[in-house]
Design a protein that fits this description.
- The protein is an alpha/beta fold.
- The protein has one domain: Rossmann fold.
- The protein has 5 helices and 7 strands, in the order E-H-E-E-H-E-H-E-H-E-H-E.
- The chain has a 7-stranded parallel β-sheet with strand order 3-2-1-4-5-6-7, sandwiched between helices.
- Helix 1 crosses helix 5, helix 2 runs parallel beside helix 3 and helix 3 packs parallel to helix 4.
- The radius of gyration is 18 Å and the shape is globular.
- This is NADP-dependent 3-hydroxy acid dehydrogenase YdfG.
- Belongs to the short-chain dehydrogenases/reductases (SDR) family.
- It comes from Microlunatus flavus.
- It holds the Pfam family adh_short.
Length: 250
């Protein structure tokens, strides 16, 4: 690592702490949905987004700010984090693990490799990215926001892999927060349904209805930026961001 440690927040004359600048923020799944919305929000807030995804983002990013990686491969995910951070100055101030997949089906209607890939991307990919990012975040006193789901706290049928992975992200994040208290900031984001392409490839029975009220990913991205920009020592530990009529919460 080649970065120079600087304080993540400043103190005003009356002793209050100002929000920190976003700095460099790594975003998995940054080419679509919540990830893409957060890329735009980070840029608008003056931060520098780095993107890991299978697809190149449409956002205008400098050379070297995007890397292709399959997050179902934990070792590849770890190496991609190190490579992209080192290629962009060696400093990392924030992370959002927005990459996620699903294939709704009964347990006996989904093949083993597909079931396992959902868990690998959503849970193992999240853990691998966090593991590789930790040394950088500890140096900068940075923050990580993990993305679970309302289906990480409420189970439904035909979603055993997705619920298993997102329940896992909840437990993983709470444990990470306890483990790294006072060293980095850790926020668990529990979003409800959003207007994204996440539902596009599903069978009709698993798609939101035409009258479904979903959140805009831009609104959830604003909550991510809020969590990432808190002053050192002030923790947004968990955020539930959902439509006021979200059916999967509480």
């Amino acid at each position: 690592m080649t970065s120079t440690l600087t304080p993540p927040a400043t103190e005003t004359a009356n002793g209050s702490r100002e929000r920190t600048a976003l700095g460099t923020v790594l975003i998995t799944g940054g080419s679509s949905g919540l990830g893409a919305a957060t890329v735009a929000a980070v840029q608008a807030a003056g931060g520098t987004p780095l993107v890991l995804d299978l697809t190149k983002p449409a956002a205008d990013l400098p050379d070297g700010a995007y890397a292709e990686v399959d997050l179902s491969d934990p070792r590849a995910a770890e190496q991609a984090v190190r490579d992209i951070v080192e290629a962009n100055g060696g400093r990392l101030d924030g992370v959002l693990t927005a990459a996620g997949i699903d294939f709704p089906a009964p347990l006996d209607g989904i093949d083993g490799p597909t079931w396992e890939r959902i868990v690998m991307v959503n849970l193992f990919g999240t853990a691998a990215v966090a593991r590789a990012a930790l040394p950088y975040l500890k140096e900068s006193r940075g923050r990580i926001v993990t993305v679970a789901s309302t289906l990480g706290i409420k189970a439904v049928g035909d979603a055993t892999a997705y619920c298993a992975s997102k329940f896992g992200v909840v437990g993983f994040t709470r444990s990470l927060a306890a483990e790294t208290a006072g060293q980095i900031g850790v926020t668990l984001l529990i979003p409800g349904g959003m207007h994204t392409h996440f539902f596009d490839d599903r069978d009709a029975q698993y798609k939101p209805g035409a009258d479904a009220v979903l959140n805009k990913p831009e609104d959830t991205a604003a909550a991510v930026v809020f969590a990432l920009s808190q002053p050192a020592g002030c923790e947004v530990r968990e955020l539930v961001v959902a439509s006021s009529v979200e059916t999967s919460w509480p």
